[in-house]
Amino acid sequence: MLDLYPRYFMAIFIFIFSLLLFVFTIGYHLESSIKINNLNITKISNEQRYQHYLYFSRSERLLYREKAREMFQFGYDNYMKYAFPQDELDPINCRGRGPDIERPENYNINDVLGEFSLTLIDSLDTLAVMGNVSEFQQAVKLVIDHVRFDRNSTIQVFEATIRVLGALLSAHLLIIDPLQPFGNLTIEDYDNELLDLAHDLASRLLPAFENTPQGLPYPRVNLMTGLVDGSRNDTSTAGAGSLSLEFSILSRLVGDPVYEQVARRAVNSLWDKRNNVTGLLGSVIDVNSGEWLGQLSGLGAGIDSFFEYLLKNYILFGDEADLRMFDDAYRSVTQYMRRGRVNCMDEEGIHPIFVNVNMHTGQLATTWIDALQASFSAVQVLRGDIDEAICLHALYYSIWRKFGVLPERFNWQIKMPDVLFYPLRPEFIESTYFLYQATKNPFYLHVGRDILDNLNTYTKVECGFATVHDVRDKTLEDRMESFFLSETCKYLFLLFDEDNYLNQHGANHYIFTTEAHIIPLMAKLRRKIWDLNEMTSYVENTNDKQTYTHEHELINVNRDLIKVEKNIISIKKKRANQTSCQSRPISHRHQLPLSANLLYQVDEMVGVITSQP
């Protein structure tokens, strides 16, 4: 009997041990199963989180086209009612704004406003693109009757060029266009008055280029006296190097090479001063000494449109030297500024970002990126680098969604803005438009809807749309800059206006300036009737095989200018991003431009959503 107890306890022990082992085994596999299921749930959740981007109805697109039209019209009508003939509208107090005469050092205002009805001029081709023929014609007559440039105003050469000179040239070309694709914009008894105004303005800007030892223009000039502002000799790379498109157009329209010559000389001077190791340019340079005062190199403020105009000069004028310069610059930018995984569409590694670096070393210089860099996606689209454009745009979309608008500077390290205001800038909208045209993916229509809704929610006031003073609390400043009507509203309207001539036929026949003024790719603008022997840019283009029978004939950019090929960018001695416009098949329109997991990754990176434990 006593011998049974050990056996009994042994049996109980074995039973309990087996039970515990069974429970532990089941629990382990159950836990693994839950983990797997959690992963599946996360993946499904990501797909569900972004699946609404896959469809955008025609009725909603038409609705938002009209909302974009109404947005422009509300701002424009109030400018005309409360501000014209002054330069800008103060939309909160419903009054006009001109230069700050009492404070000449107030460059934020005086660089732009020169007592020449800036907002009216800057809005001309937006009226045309929207098909508002009667208002366009009325606006042109107002410009002809009221605008004069013999003003005692010291303005910035760059801003006057892109906002005013570019607008006048664009409107003039739209009026004389024999095709009249936006409606009959012709004006009875028009005698090239807008071209004459453009010529007059450019002539008043020329003293900024005179007697400069480096071939770089002084940043500011008085329109009446021709005196340059000697108190500041520093100019930005964009300010000195983004005048060539408008100045060259003017030269070829009026038959005077001097404007193209001085603008091209400035571009070449800057190009010669790039670092001979990195190939990078700085952001601020001394006009007299040629010394780099700002050695930060990036894609944002101070340098952005320099790269843009290298490529657009090639598209408009057909000079291979411009394309070579752009591609050389893009290789340097990619090698030294781009951080993150090599192939941006891979799900392993950090999402790509273009950072600010030291031009001499390529080392990281700041932990912020700015709002103007958002336009570089549009430049990448023009060059056919679609995948990279998609990835850069996705980063800015996440920043937009985090704050509802785009802060001027975003610190990607602390995931918060360094500079808090949003002055209704168009650069992110511009890239959204270009990516939609390149991919036809409804994702970008959703982005445009978010932009338009947020502008109406946060910035619409009694008489227009106001600058956001602080993106965190959406407090406002009483200013509506002219580019809101010229660029922001125009790109939003075109995004949703599928039937617009620019979207149906014009993509191969027009180019946007950096202020979004549309310029037709006319045969006349490709003809060089002079040879400026100091620059190879002015040699006749022997590669242009097409014969043009009429000076207003349009050039097909796909056939004659940009032959989009695989663009192989060297990143740390690796071949990566072999993409082109042709790499986005029609089937991709029914997919997200980035996978749901990658979109989720960018949202985490920016801080739109917090990481799961």
What does it look like?
The longest helix has 47 residues, at 4-50. Helix 12 (304-317) runs antiparallel to helix 13 and helix 15 crosses helix 16. Strand 13 (409-411) and strand 14 (416-419) form a beta hairpin. This protein has a single domain, classed as Glycosyltransferase. The protein starts with a helix and ends in a 7-residue tail after the last helix. A 3-stranded antiparallel sheet has the order 5-6-7. A 3-stranded antiparallel sheet has the order 12-13-14, with no helix packed on it. With 613 residues, the protein is mainly alpha-helical. It is 46% helix and 11% strand. The chain has 21 helices and 22 strands.
* Overall pLDDT metric: 87
- Low-confidence residue ranges: 23-43, 533-549, 558-583
The CATH architecture would be Alpha/alpha barrel
CATH topology type: Glycosyltransferase
Strand content: 5-15%
Domain count: 1
What is the radius of gyration?
A: 28 Å
Q: What's the level 1 CATH class?
A: Mainly Alpha
N- to C-terminal separation? 58 Å
Strand order of the largest sheet: 5-6-7
Number of strands: 22
Percent of residues in helices comes to 40-55%
Structural class: mainly alpha
Largest sheet: 3 strands, antiparallel
Short structural summary:
The protein is mainly alpha-helical and 613 residues long.
Helix-strand blueprint:
Layout lengths: L3 H47 L7 H25 L5 E3 L4 E3 L9 H4 L7 H5 L1 H6 L3 H14 L7 E3 H20 L16 H13 L14 E3 L11 E3 H5 L2 H11 L3 H15 L11 E3 L5 E3 L1 E2 L6 H14 L2 H17 L1 E2 L13 E2 L2 E2 L9 E3 L5 H8 L2 H18 L5 E3 L4 E4 L7 H13 L3 H16 L1 E2 L2 E2 L1 E4 L4 E3 L5 H14 L4 H4 L5 E3 L5 E3 L36 H4 L6 E5 L2 E6 L16 H11 L7
Antiparallel strand pairs: 1-2, 3-4, 5-6, 6-7, 8-11, 9-10, 12-13, 13-14, 15-16, 17-18, 19-20, 21-22
